[in-house]
Amino acid sequence: MPDYTAIKILHVATVIISGGGFALRLALMLWREAWLGLRPVKVLPHINDTLLLASGITLAVLSRQYPLAQDWLTAKLVALVVYILLGMLALKPRFAKPVRLGFGVLALLVFAYIVSVALARRAWPL
Known about the structure:
By secondary structure, the chain is mainly α. 78% of the residues lie in helices and 0% in strands.
């Protein structure tokens, strides 16, 4: 049986890396857009986010807390989809930079909501 604490530490670490990495890529979009095309900048987020998702699923299974049964977990997953969509819009060059920055700021706000839901274990953590 996997160690719950170790998986939770992995999950929290990958959350921090994911949020920080997105903020860094958003800054690169504004000031060094060519760097977004570098292989590590394109590949590392996918590796981290795969670990993040796998550890999150493992934690849900180990703790027997499932979406639709736990409203806070459902809210977190719905917000995750919104975060991913906003993040994609922020980093794709089809929009002007101010619009992309707006999508990026919204994505970071949704990210903060996801973290606050996880910490409070309530869909409305405020």
